Prior knowledge:
Blueprint: H1 3-13, H2 20-30, H3 45-62, E1 66-71, E2 74-79, H4 84-91, H5 102-114, E3 117-118, H6 119-126, H7 131-139, E4 143-148, E5 156-160, H8 162-168, H9 179-183, H10 213-224
Antiparallel strand pairs: 1-2, 3-5, 4-5
Amino acid sequence: MDLKYILESVLFSAQEPLSVKDLREVLKNAAEHSPDAADFKKTSFEDVVAALDALTQEHTAAQRSYRLVCVAERWQFVTEPEFAPWVKALVGERARPSRLSAPALETLAIIAYRQPITRAEMEQVRGVAVDGVLQTLVERGLVEQVGVAEVIGRPRTFGTTAAFLEYFGLKNLEELPAADELRRIPINKPDSLLTVDPGLATAPPEQLATAPTEATEAQSAAVSEKTK
């Protein structure tokens, strides 16, 4: 039996997207229910990925009404966009969250390319306070606290979530456009991050340095392109 067709059957039957780890766990557990499944009990991570890639190519070449995609490191079958009217007639239309504002997209782009990053560093790139938009991104589940910086005040650092990858339809962060170039845009860090509240560290306004407008615009444009 071909591994890729086993994975195909599992993904068709799954109620939610599955990661490679999830699929390997299914292969392992199946051996407990049938001796015929024992050959796939110790299938490697690389073999599962190779089978999924081959399956993706097969479905693309066959030009079916659906395709296999990987979003946020999880695999699932999705229908092609042109069949949306008929699918909506069957299952209804899910309410989409409101679009992100330009300031929110700019801040999200900065976080995506420079994570983990503190609020003070975001403000240095944008040249304005990010309190409101940062809170919005956290409430939307696109950004979360990932740690603390080893500087004065130990400010919180932020990074993107799996929901961010799902929102923009990305397999992982490496699929961000022009990631290498934008990650190298320098941030002029202050000598220290002064704070009253250790959990809300920020630099004084006079220490904020606005990065070139082109850099911020390039970052936000690259991320917002994914929403189109």
